[in-house]
Structure formats: C-alpha cells, structure tokens
Write a structure and sequence with these properties.
The structure is a homodimer. The first copy, chain A, is an alpha/beta fold. Chain A contains six helices and twelve strands. In chain A, a hairpin with a 5-residue loop joins strand 4 and strand 5. At the A-B interface, strand 8, strand 10, strand 11 and strand 12 of A face strand 8, strand 10, strand 11 and strand 12 of B.
Chain lengths: 198, 198
C-alpha cells in the first residue's frame, strides 16, 4: 500500500492488474528471492523483505482470493501458480474445481465469503489460512472479524490515485501493532487483530 | 493519520475539530510531556513520542497554518498558543496581525500559499519552518515542492471514515523513508522529500 492508501493505480484491468504506475507499489517484491521462488523464477535478493514474504507463504494450508483478483491473475499465474496450496475463490459464477501443478488447486465458492472462509479453514486444518486479496475481500474479512492478523507492506510512494485498500465506511476499530520491519523500499507492519479493544 | 488514511473523524467542526472518534487518532499526543509543556500543562509522559514532538517544535522560527485549522483552533489555543513562534495563516480574509503571549504571533496572508511560505521562510531565517496543517495545506505544500521533510504519525486504528490526509489526484511521487520510530501507540515515519526520484 502506498502512503496515500492505494494498492493499485488507476485503469487496472486484466491486461494490467496493478494499474498505471502500479509498479511503483509492487516492484520491491519482484526481485525478492522468496517471491521469485514461489513464481518458479531463479535468483533474487535475500534479506528481511524476502524473509517476510517467505513467512507469509510458509505453512499455508489454504488461500482465499476475491473473484476480481483471480480473474486478473489467472492467466499470469499459469499452470504452476505461486500459491502452492488449495485456493478458494469467492465468486458468483459457478465453475468446476481445477488442480494445477505445484500443489495449487482452484475451488470456486458461490455462497459467499463466510462459506469460502469455512471451506478454506477446514482444508487448512492446523496450517494457516492466507487471505491474499484483493482489497474488497480483505476489507470484508476485517469487517467479519475472521482475521487473526493483517500485514501491510507500506511503500514510500504518493501514488496520487488508484484503488484504495481502505474506503468503506464502518465503525472505528483499534488495532495493535505486532511487528514492524523497516527496509529502504518497504515497511512491513503486522497488526494483531485478535487483541484489539474495539 | 489512521491506517486507513484519516486525520479527523466525520462531522469535524469548530466545536469539535477532530471530528467523531477523532480522539482515537490524537489521544497518544495529549499525554506527552512535550506536547503538554507547549500547551502550558504540567506533567505527561517522557519517551520516544515525546521526544519526536519536542523535536518537531525545536528551533522552529515560523509556522504555517491553513485557514480552516486556524479557525478550528483559535479559541482553544487562547492567549498563549502552543506555537511559541510567528504563525502565518493562509486565508482569503484580511485581518490585522496579532501578538499573543509566549512568542506566538498571528499574521494573515491573503495572497496565497507561496506568499505565506515566502514570508514565513524570511521570518524563520536560519531556523526551521514548520507547516502544522491542516490536510489541504500539507497537500499543497507537497505538491509545490517546498517541503524538505514530511512526518506521519501513523496510529493503529481503522477509523472507517472522516477527513483524509491524502485525497487529491496528482502524478506519482517516490519518497524516501528517513527515520522510523516505533511505539505501541503510534509509529513516527519521517520522509525525506529532497532526495526523491520523482
């Protein structure tokens, strides 16, 4: 997320999911060793940010995605998607499940976010459930009080327009900063959502 | 600023400048020793946040305020305002200068932000020029490229609505994090605006 609250630029589309100038928000991740490994790419930089991304994918037993993020990513992710775990897509359009290479499967849940979270949690079992996005699903998950933690990767950019992560009107909620990791390119702020005093 | 980008709640007014639930954003500052001292109050907590606020007021030779922030604050600030330096108010309404107690004076500049910054910079001389707010003035100062640094006090709150610090459409701009100070109540992120690669 940029300092001014955007997670994608204007004019985001299936051809350009991160929108105009979206690379200013996301380029830090593309060169990380852990991100590249998950995407089947060689090389990349080690360090705190690579460790944070590795951690976010470690011990994940299921992933939840919004329909829009899935539509935007499906072609790019290809035959061996970077999730390496069962993925549950919240959508209104029924579609048969698919098994991809590398441990990823896609299951399309048409009866709402709560049902998707329930199915993903059951699949994850003792492992962690990762809600990868997009913005709408993350907001809904916060509102539904089903998240244990929220991690924001705050980049020192004023994007000046685009798709905001937070934009819905709702009652105030106090969070707790659980961990903060600073790098020149991005600040990783992890919030504990279990111990808040709403 | 809250994690979701607000610096005041909804329904902000002269009677309630911080808006509904605005205390969730600002209460960390009220108990700081340095903030209380500037406001003529005894006591308060020492520590990193108090040091950050003390530093923001140290060696300040002039202050610039927007008209709205001035109108909202004037009565509350009273006869000995917390600025302890000459204050230049950007406004459309001519008004005679006033000298208050404790080193504060108010000068009303009616020919625009650049003129106010010029007058304040001349008054400040070798000392620092502090742009205290509100949001509109801060945004205009960033856009006009007249700021050396920007400090965000990021509070772990999802306010859910109110007045945003950043909301104007503009070209993207890359900033540089200069310093980050973490406390349980607030994270102070200072951006260096001089060395950006726009």
């Amino acid at each position: 997320m940029s300092l001014d609250g955007y997670i994608a630029g204007v004019n985001d589309s299936i051809d350009r999911p991160i929108g105009d100038n979206g690379e200013l928000l996301h380029r830090w991740v593309y060169e990380l060793k852990s991100w590249r490994k998950a995407h089947g790419l060689e090389g990349g930089a080690s360090g705190p940010s690579s460790d944070v991304i590795a951690e976010s994918m470690d011990d994940v037993g299921a992933v939840v995605l919004g329909r829009r993020m899935f539509d935007f990513g499906e072609t790019y992710w290809g035959d061996e998607p970077p999730f390496h775990a069962p993925v549950f897509v919240v959508t209104n359009r029924p579609r048969a499940s698919e098994t991809k290479q590398g441990g990823t499967s896609y299951t399309f849940v048409t009866d709402g976010l709560e049902a998707a979270l329930d199915a993903a949690a059951e699949t994850a079992g003792e492992q962690r459930l990762h809600v990868a996005g997009g913005a709408d699903i993350i907001r809904q998950c916060i509102a539904s009080d089903r998240l244990d933690e929220l991690q924001i990767h705050l980049v020192p950019v004023l994007l000046g327009g685009g798709k905001r992560l937070f934009e819905t009107s709702h009652p105030p909620r106090h969070l707790k900063v659980d961990r903060l990791i600073e790098t020149p390119d991005v600040t990783h702020i992890r919030y504990d959502l279990r111990s808040n005093d709403k």
